[in-house]
Amino acid sequence: MESLADIESIERATLAAVAPRELQEFEGWLLAFDDGVIGRAKSAVPLSHAPPSPGIAARIERRYREKGLPAAYRLADRPQFESLYDELRASGYAPAQPTLVMVADCATVRAVWSGPAARLAVVPDAGWKRVFGGPGFDLADGAARARNLSRAKDAIYASVEHEGGTVAIGTGSFAFGWASAHGMRTVTHARGRGFASCILATLAAAALERGCARMFLQVEESNEARRLYERAGFATAWRYRYWRP
User: Domain tally for the chain?
Assistant: First the structure.
């Protein structure tokens, strides 16, 4: 388990990276308001794993209703949330999409790749954007994700070129003492060649240059990419699920 300070800083850094349209702090929670496709950018998350105050779900739901948006809650699988789970179930919510928060030392991640570094930019270029909507990915979904990641205030955009085109991309964000990796994508025909490792190692090297020693990422539990992340030195800090109507 991460420390209480780590939990809060990771949650703040997460929302700095996925850049929802609006963000509010409310009774020890972060409420992200967005109409895009990134679940983290349109759900409420507590800043600690302490037992929540009674009735908090209903109060948060009202905040979302005022924005004309459906409420969703991003909750770690922790026994101290059992009363909140019961409150949500009674209101017609159910958990889905189990996702892992994984952390690693940047020095360890940097060592996963010894070849040439990925190309870095402070503004996403056309090739980076094309991968999000290229073969193997949904065009509308990709465009929405690219839009959110492009709004991050302190981010870098990594890409790998191969045979005349961009084949792998990722985003590194820096906030609240953490580096984080987001939007990792490799086009279908280029998978299995180590390009994702190249992206991760390049982002980790950039973090070390900034004096940032730790990084995190989030991946759905069923996603085979988690095996790559484990090989790169990432370990699960906690698992969460989205609670939606």
Answer: 2
- Look at strands 235-244 and 94-105 and give their pairing: antiparallel
Distance CA 144, CA 40 (A): 13
C-alpha angle 243/91/18, rounded to 5°? 25
Domain termination residue (choose one: 78, 98, 118): 98
- Asked if 164 contacts 197 with a C-beta cutoff of 8 angstroms, the reply is no
CA 140 to each of CA 35, 63, 184: distance values in angstroms, whole numbers, following the listed order = 13, 27, 17
Ordered strands of the 22-26 beta sheet: 22-26, 29-33, 44-46, 73-76, 235-244, 94-105, 214-220, 178-186, 165-175, 155-162, 119-121
User: Which H or E element spans position 159?
Assistant: strand 155-162
Q: How far, in Å, CA of 198 to CA of 228, rounded?
A: 11
What tens digit of pLDDT does each residue of 120-172 get? Answer: 999 999 899 889 877 667 777 888 888 999 999 999 999 999 988 999 999 99
Residues 230 and 123 in one domain: yes
Domain extent for 194: 103-239
